[in-house]
Design a protein that fits this description.
The chain has about 550 residues and is of the alpha/beta class. It is built from 16 helices and 27 strands.
Length: about 550
């Protein structure tokens, strides 16, 4: 389709970016080190490290990896929450010319075994809280080196001892494990400091990340993201933010885990490039502690998902924070509900910008520009150097304003799934990646997600989109969260069932249905309501409708 969105780009946003501006992420990192050496790069649990310190630590870790016989291109897994150890390990692996395999630390043994086997990981850096999971499966993988760290290992000595002792012996958060081949991550860095680091030649087509996706909808697949993919998306993001972000001067909040592609790109890589500090939140589920951390940090940029922003809005003390310096509040990962966006604006005075992406696109595809004055319910406009078209079930492009499956083409699109040629060919045809999302585009080039194809509910031949039902349900003042799914029905094929979280015990099924009936056409109104204390979510806060359907 014609790139009508280019006419509505903010004036400072480039229409095209140079995906080959840097030969690799290593080049980006080294340039930032040279420019921002004395700036703080990361903060966690009250401890901060500068870019210069990150440079030395990551270089020492890279030297260690090279010294133990690992080769350029070998896969190294990282399995931990947001800690200072994460960026040290991440950039150490990249600087050694190796491939990062980001692993969800809450994986079951089965899930971990699959990812380590599939990626052929040769080493893993893991926080000891989850070492018991690794010990169950390591014999069935090709992992040769295990590097263990404790949560407090990069804190000042006394605090380190206190934190590690409390976690292990008071809170008993470290189950027993047996990994005789394990070594200390911090000791490995010290050993690396005695070795010679040899900077490898890393090019755009070398793999930077094996980022796994699809674990909730089938076999988890490794999206092969090259350095060029990552650099291209980094340049795209930077172009959109450049008019607002002052290099070296922003304070960024990173509550989403760095192992997730959204935080990896929009927080970790983007603000390494901009030379700004990231406040790493280790446990964002502890909303009280999260709000306290925000109160003590004059943040200017915060990213998250709908559930995270909703959680903050419902946590005492959040509304008392000084939001004067906030420039960007960016949401992705799942649709932002209108009520959450409206409450965010009313509470903070700032628009909750919405973007869209997927792992296979490194991940950002579209975003609303910072000049947006009100929440549109749109996922924004395509990134620079990005093409989008919407097609029907026969692959024919639909007319402007009509809904169709979104196909994406751009330098950020992955090279394919690791060892899965058939799956790659199913999703990428003639350079176009099929997202599986149904979208429409308005006359100004703003895109709107209608819903996932697989989540669509079919009621008597009519398409019902869960996002719409959930948005309307969440408008009720006593409803905190909602999730809509289709359940089989004899006469209509499917009916809508809504799962509701509410703190008002007096709220009834009839109340919810009446509320929905006031705002929805008859066939869209839920016929069943189930109250839950909480809804199942992924580790980045995306509601898992499939788990509800499978109940």
């Amino acid at each position: 389709m014609e790139k009508i969105w280019l006419n509505n780009y903010d004036s400072d946003v480039a229409k095209e970016v140079d995906a080959d501006k840097y030969s690799s992420l290593v080049d980006v990192f080294e340039q930032s080190i040279a420019t921002f050496a004395n700036n703080v790069s990361y903060i966690n649990m009250g401890k901060s490290i500068t870019f210069a310190e990150l440079d030395q630590l990551s270089k020492d870790f890279a030297a260690y990896l090279q010294s133990i016989g690992l080769k350029k291109g070998d896969a190294v897994a990282i399995m931990m929450p947001n800690l200072l150890q994460y960026p040290v390990a991440l950039f150490g692996v990249l600087r050694a010319g190796m491939t990062v395999v980001n692993v969800n630390p809450l994986y079951t043994a089965r899930e971990l075994q699959h990812q380590l086997q599939d990626s052929n990981a040769k080493a893993i850096v893991i926080v000891e809280n989850f070492a018991c999971t690794l010990s169950e499966v390591i014999a069935d993988t090709n992992v040769e080196k295990v590097l263990l760290t404790s949560i407090g290992d990069m804190l000042p000595t006394i605090k380190k001892w206190i934190v590690n002792f409390a976690i292990k012996h008071v809170k008993k958060m470290v189950p027993s494990y047996h990994l005789p081949q394990a070594e200390s991550f911090t000791l490995a860095i010290k050993v690396g400091a005695t070795k010679t680091y040899t900077r490898p030649t890393v090019g755009g087509e070398d793999l930077a990340f094996l980022q796994y996706t699809g674990g909730t909808t089938g076999v988890s697949k490794g999206a092969m993201l090259t350095h060029r993919n990552a650099v291209a998306n980094l340049e795209q993001v930077a172009s959109v933010l450049a008019a607002v972000v002052i290099p070296g001067k922003e304070n960024v909040v990173t509550a989403l885990p760095l192992y997730h592609i959204f935080a990896l790109q929009a927080n970790c890589l983007a603000f390494i490039k901009f030379g700004c500090p990231n406040l790493l939140i280790t446990n964002p589920r502890d909303m009280t502690a999260f709000v306290k951390a925000l109160s003590n940090y004059p943040f200017t940029i915060i990213t998250g998902v709908n559930t995270l922003f909703n959680g903050l809005l419902n946590t005492p003390g959040f509304s008392d924070i000084d939001f004067t310096n906030v420039k960007i509040s960016l949401a992705g990962g799942a649709a932002v509900q209108k009520t959450v966006a409206e409450r965010w604006k009313a509470t903070t005075g700032h628009v909750l910008l919405e973007g869209y992406g997927l792992t296979e696109c490194s991940p950002v595809v579209t975003v609303n520009h910072p000049s947006l004055k009100t929440h549109k319910g749109s996922i924004g406009m395509p990134m620079p150097s990005t093409d989008i078209k919407l097609v029907d079930d026969d692959g024919i492009e639909v007319a402007l304003g009509q809904s169709g499956e979104m196909l994406v083409k751009g330098p950020q699109v992955m090279s394919g799934y690791l060892n899965r040629e058939e799956a790659t060919n199913d999703i990428i045809k003639d350079g176009w990646l099929a997202t599986g999302d149904i979208a429409k585009c308005d006359e100004n080039g703003f895109f709107y997600i209608v819903d996932r194809k697989k989540d669509m509910i079919l009621v008597s031949g009519f398409n019902v989109y869960p996002n719409e039902i959930e948005d309307v349900t969440a408008m009720h003042p006593d409803i905190i969260e909602a999730a809509a799914v289709g359940v089989p029905h004899e006469s209509s094929g499917e009916i809508v069932k809504i799962y509701v979280v509410s703190e008002n015990e007096a709220l009834t099924e009839e109340d919810v249905i009446k509320h929905c009936r006031d705002h929805l056409t008859g066939y869209k109104v839920p016929k069943k309501v189930e109250f839950r204390n909480e809804l199942p979510k992924s580790n980045v806060g995306k509601i898992l409708r499939r788990e509800l359907r499978d109940d």
